[in-house]
Amino acid sequence: MRSHRPQHWCGITAKTGTVLSGVFTIVATDMYLTFEQKHLKGSDCAELKGRAKSVNMLINQFITCWSWNIVLFLSSITIIISCLHLYSVYARMYTGLMIYIAWIPSYEIANIVIQVLTNKESLIGEVRFMRWFGLVSRIFMHCFWIFFVVTYAHTIYKNEGQGNIVPYNRYISTGRGEFPWQKSKIVNFSRHYSE
């Protein structure tokens, strides 16, 4: 007989790890915006205006000049998706978790591209190191937390297919005047009608 106790990894259940992943993403995104604001807002685009000779250079120039606006836009979307993620844990909706799972790698890839293109030689070496350290450590932490999110989304998806079965005890007539207890299952339709 299989136990219905939740499994623990690093002392954390899948649901708790999923909640912590959403909280971590919101806090880390806020810290990232605070730190990067000074370095990305100060992009000097005046010296780059005449240098665009190819399409690649034009794209690089656009990303460099608009890096703060791009990061602010992507971070705002990330915070909104993280809030949806937290609501999805509460409401047991795997769709919101899947959106989070798809968005986080895209967000981090975009941040790597921006980091590479805006990592100027004029920055102090320690600042460049701190920017890369922050980005890499955030990516590793997202990889750690995403395991919990995938596990919890899979659990919700499996349980949703079973139709919210609720067991209860009831009397069963055997025709001989006896009423032995028997475990029975009733499908809970109240969730499906409320949506």
Automatic annotation (TrEMBL):
Q: Key word Transmembrane helix present in the record? A: yes
The UniProt transmembrane annotation reads 12-33, 66-90, 97-117, 129-153
Q: Which Pfam families does the annotation name?
A: DUF4534
**Keywords associated with the record:** Membrane, Transmembrane, Transmembrane helix
Q: Which domain of life is it from?
A: Eukaryota
Coiled coil segments of this chain: none
KW Membrane (keyword) present: yes
Q: Fetch the InterPro entries from UniProt.
A: DUF4534
Name of this protein: Transmembrane protein 217
Query: What is the originating organism of this protein?
Result: Ceratotherium simum simum
